[in-house]
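Mods, move this if it's the wrong board.
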Amino acid sequence: MNRKLTAAAAAVMLTACIVLDSRFTLETTEYNARFDDLPPEFDGFRIAVLSDLHGMSFGKDNSRLVRAVSDAKPDMIAILGDMITYPSDLPAFESLLDGIEGIAPIYCINGNHEWAAHCVDKVRELALSHGAHFLSNSYEPLYCGSSRIIVCGAEDKNGRADMETPPELAARLRGEYPDDFVLWLYHRNDTLTGFPGLPVDLVLSGHAHGGIVRLPFIGGLLDVHRRLGAEYEKGVYEEGSTVMIVSRGLGNSIVVPRFLNRPELVCVTLSIDSKTSD
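Not the wrong board. Structure tokens:
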């Protein structure tokens, strides 16, 4: 009996340690995204990706997260939405913006929770007050030397019913910039399945929280609605000429805790695919 109790206690302690590790131990994941049509001066360009903070704080004033972003030495910071779950989470987002302002240009979009919490205007105001570019179904050129790419932020479908859809936004963009490299920022991880053939080069997304519960050799178990069968929950996916990179995110918004799924800062390095560009 004592052995059974000891084993049970050990299992509970181990589970608790894993849950705490999956909540507070921040890690950085590096991806190298190669393209044959990348402008030459963007070869080696680094993007730090922040998604799904959901009001979490990593140290006082998010100091550990700020340090991780600074240590990544990014040329651009992409904030992919769901930085809050409730209005009470706004101070954690503000402290993060306080810390990362000045590290690199910041590009920010909404996720589904900014709309659900009725905080779209407040999040936008916070971002703009810290010098960020706030993209709401809008796009703008980003220059590196004499080269440029187009950064586009697509709105979440939790927004107003009269907003442009991603295909409509992409068509408008391509009407103005038919041949440019397009970096597409979109909170949800369904671009490749929901909008197949979208004429963009690189998609950065979050939303899936890495499948929330991750198991060895299996991967993520749950989608964000707590249903079995997570898809496109983390990492790199390719469809035609489009590459999509999905962040596991930083926080959580449901009762089920993250498990074997540490909070993630993603860093993407753009490079020219020499095999196809020669």
